[in-house]
Amino acid sequence: MPSSELEIDESQIDFSDIYAKYSVPEPAGFECIVVVDGAPMVGADKEQKLIDKIKSLFKNIGGVKDAVMPMDEGGKSKGYLFIEFETPAQAKAAISAIDNYKFDKNHTLSGNAFDDIEGFANVTETYVAPPTEPYVEKPHLRSWLKDEYARDQWVVMKGDDTGIYWNNKGEMPDLVHSRPKWSDMYVSWSPKGSYLTTFHKQGVVLWGGPEFEKIVRFAHVNVKLIDFSPDEKYLVTWSHEPILMPNGEHHHVIVWDILSGRQLRSFPVAGAAMKAPESKEKGPGATVKIDWPMFKWSHDSKYIARMTPGAEGAISVYETPGMGLLDKKSIKIENLKSFEWSPTENILSYWTPEPEVGNIPARVTLIKLPSREIVRTKNLFNVVNVNFHWQSNGKYLLARVEKAATKISRTHNLEIFRMREKDIPVDVVELKGTENLTNAFWEPNGDRFALIALEGTVKINVHFYEMNSAGSVVATAASKKKEGGSAAVAANVGGAKLLKSLERKGINQVIWSPKGRIAVLAGVRAFQGDIEFWDADDMTMLAAGEHYTCTDVEWDPTGRYLVSSVSWWRVQQDPGFILWSCVGTQLTKQSVPQFKQILWRPRPATPLTLEEQKAIKKNFKEYSKEFDVVDAKETSKIDKAVLEKRRALWNDWVSYRRRCYEDWTREAELRGEIIGYDREDDARQAVKEIEEFVDEVIEETEEIIGDASDDD
Amino acid sequence: MRPILLHGHLRSLTRIRYNSDGDLLFSASKDNKPCVWYSANGERLGTFNGHNGAVWDLDVTHNSRYLMTGSADNTCKMWEVETGKCVYTWETRTAVRAVSFALGDEKALFVTDATMGQQSTIHIVPIEADPEDQTSDVLRTIVVTGAKVTVAVWGNLNRTIVTGHEDGTITEWNPDTGAKVKSSKNHEKAITDIQFSADKSHFMSSSKDHTAHLTDSKTLKVMKSFVTERPVNSACLSPLRPHVVLGGGQDAMDVTTTSLKGNKFESRFYHAVFEDEIGRVKGHFGPINTLAFHPSGRSFSSGGEDGFIRVHHLDEDYFEFKYDEENFDDLPQL
């Protein structure tokens, strides 16, 4: 039936269900009204003054339409006011601004929405206990450490897939768990390996346990960077998208409590770094160039510190878990440039440059917390920049100092603070004037460090130094007295002994094994991907290899393996990874399309004491026996499997070829017909012995046979 | 052994082929002059002058008397090898992409390109014993609907024609009826080369999708596949050993200028049965466009985008190389 003939009487249709579905609750009409309670009770003479005063508190929010203060019969105010705003949003902002506001010594104001007051009046008198939540067993976050063969895990991102695998020494890794589209950006491990973090538009999610269940999620829109506290209790997240706070501030950083999943505090971040990332890359650190971690954790996770650089500089130290400012005030440091925590003590190192006017030297300072006692300062001159490198035990602090020799040329030296010795003596290492120091790397738990210095534009020198033991350093007191004079510091040279200098091209990283001793020299990202393994004990090269266009190099947490990788985020050609043994043998090379990231799962510190570890090292052969047996069995199993597979393939091929041969002989006649003659016969005839003679003229001599008559 | 470098072409190579005896090597390139060389020492016998465009493909008769070339100048030419004279020219509407002599050399095919509103067309033409008698008669034309043909060869006993297409499909045609017999999409991207084994029981196909397949010609079923990281432009079978050679590399337009390392312009040897890579031969400084094994299996040649042909006589240790699991005596000798 054509629709034009259809007549509908609208009044006959029951629309009530639609009305019910889309009904909008009538606004009570009072959502713009705020009740301010706790105000002083004043007489009529001060009535207007108080109203004006309270109104002025909302100056920042604005939009105050009216303020009414009810008065009792005696002409005194009742201690509360009604303030009407133009919009509900303003009223909401006003409530959070005024609630708990200290009006004066005796009066603290409270703010409530007018609509809520009624609800407060009707609270039942009887207490109803909230129901107890049933206990839910949480997954074992460290189950992977119980692996029979003490293998390590890694997480790999390729394309949209993310998977966690067991490393099987170059054999095919075993899959533990994988999910498509697990993370929208990259993934990262917590410092002890308990959690895997994935990034999403809405925030970050932590996963853990043997099945990688969702442990907790933190809602922070477009979070790009995170930083765990060393004990995995807290998490700092950063997003370029600001969160508008009721007081009008824009917050970018949130500190979370991981166990409860609650937000502890959020912070505004000053400056230009807050623009949205323009880069298409999604890799860690590729997003924006901001100084991260912005908030630095102390080694025990007790404090978290951030700095405000510049003339009004300060370090603000917050105490966990309350996140209150330590001693309620920041440490004011004029012209602060940068700071760093000691990895084992609550000591901060920071430096301040020479001001443009005045005769004040640049200074490196060590300050103890929470006492704020300054434990050491060191004055320096003509300083352009200082970088701090703490040794992992907090035994040494290496300050990499760049000085202006003239207006354009720079010299570099090292100031090494011996933290464990009395008065913290400082050793100075001067570098050749032409060398431009680019980075320094401490051996974990060791006394050695490596330097990378650029000489000219292409020549790269790698220096290995060792700190001499305490006894060999003399005259620290003397140098301290004369401190500041560059002649005096020169006398102090010798605390660090040069082990070896190498001249290299294309090296920009030294990656020490987490167990020390082995240092890997690598040229990553901008370089070609040269990789060298060095034994620092006798300074010999163990092996040299190459992973072309390699972007990342990482040791496994036990120092047994090294992974070099080419991430598709940076290089679209041949992404994949190479697994190396600790002495530089290439165990496996995997080319993986759209390979993005590989990360070893970190391990928590060993619970064994140093003595126990030593005992194991001593009886290493005893322990390794059982593992050797397993290894041998595994290898022979694999070898056998490969052998059998090959044999089967070969046999299949042979039978295929025989079938083909039968067909071929069967078709010989047909072929002959097509060709018109017997090619095989032709071929037989064609085989003729052809003799080839080659005359080679080896020597030509001409001899004139003399006349015999001469003899006469 | 040091390879012999043949530098007779001004532009990139498109096809090299040995004659059945293996004493001659024919080469076609994007310049207009196909060449013929002595394969043993790399001496050039001569060139075939007459084309006015890139030469895409060539084939030679079993008795090495005639050479057929297909060119982008919309002609397909037949030449007398001994004299270098053009003996016949087929005029076509579009560029000739592929040519192939049938077994017995009594007919041949050439494929014209799908351009200028035309569709890829397979032309099957008779070849007269005396070129004087050659006419423009065509036995059959097969219009190919769908993806463009990139390579075409005769199958076993001239019963089929096998074509490779731009979308990665391999199709088998009946040359007598023009019907499509079988089709199989074994590759993701354009097929770059198809080369048959001596007994035509199986063939190698190479593709821009970075792989090469060894396929059974009866069923078009992939028996072995070889995966690389770069487009494969050519793949050939050793007539002597169960080995295959793959050549290719980064497409010329994407080549990095900083280093040769990343471009992978190598001839790569794989074991045909175990699919393991067993060796590489470096040398070209552009992608390899075409590969051919000598009929004896003792040497092979590669032609590159760089304009060079490299003739490699294989070393003795190559022939000594053998897996413990393989026994060559098991294999029937043709």
What does the model show?
The complex is a heterodimer of chains A (712) and B (334). In chain A, 17% of the residues lie in helices and 36% in strands. Chain A has 712 residues and is an alpha+beta fold. Among the domains of chain A are: 27-122, RRM (RNA recognition motif) domain (Alpha-Beta Plaits), CATH 3.30.70.330; 614-662. Chain B has one domain (4-330): Methylamine Dehydrogenase, Chain H. In chain B, strands 1-28-27-26 form a 4-stranded antiparallel β-sheet, with no helix packed on it. In chain B, strands 2-3-4-5 form a 4-stranded antiparallel β-sheet, with no helix packed on it. A 4-stranded antiparallel β-sheet of chain B has the order 6-7-8-9, with no helix packed on it. The A-B interface holds A 528, 548-549, 573-574, 591, 643, 646-647, 649-650, 653-654, 656-658, 660-661, 663-664, 667, 670-671, 674-676, 679 and B 62, 103-104, 106, 156-158, 199, 201-202, 216, 223, 229, 242, 250, 256, 259, 261-262, 272-274, 323, 325-327, 330-332, 334.
Find the CATH superfamily of chain B. YVTN repeat-like/Quinoprotein amine dehydrogenase
Strand portion of chain A, in percent?
A: 35-45%
Encode the helix/strand succession of chain B as letters.
EEEEEEEEEEEEEEEEEEEEEEEEEEEEH
Low-confidence stretches of chain A: 272-288, 471-493
Shape estimate of chain A: extended
CATH superfamily of the domain at 27-122 in chain A: RRM (RNA recognition motif) domain
The number of helical elements of chain A comes to 10
Number of domains of chain B: 1
The radius of gyration of chain A is 39 Å
Helix percentage of chain A? 10-25%
Report the mean per-residue pLDDT of chain B as an integer: 90
User: Strand percentage of chain B, roughly?
Assistant: over 45%
Number of strands of chain A: 42
Protein name (chain A): Eukaryotic translation initiation factor 3 subunit B
Family (chain A): Belongs to the eIF-3 subunit B family.
InterPro entries (chain A): EIF3B, eIF3B_RRM, Nucleotide-bd_a/b_plait_sf, RBD_domain_sf, RRM_dom, TIF_beta_prop-like, WD40/YVTN_repeat-like_dom_sf
Subcellular location (chain A): Cytoplasm
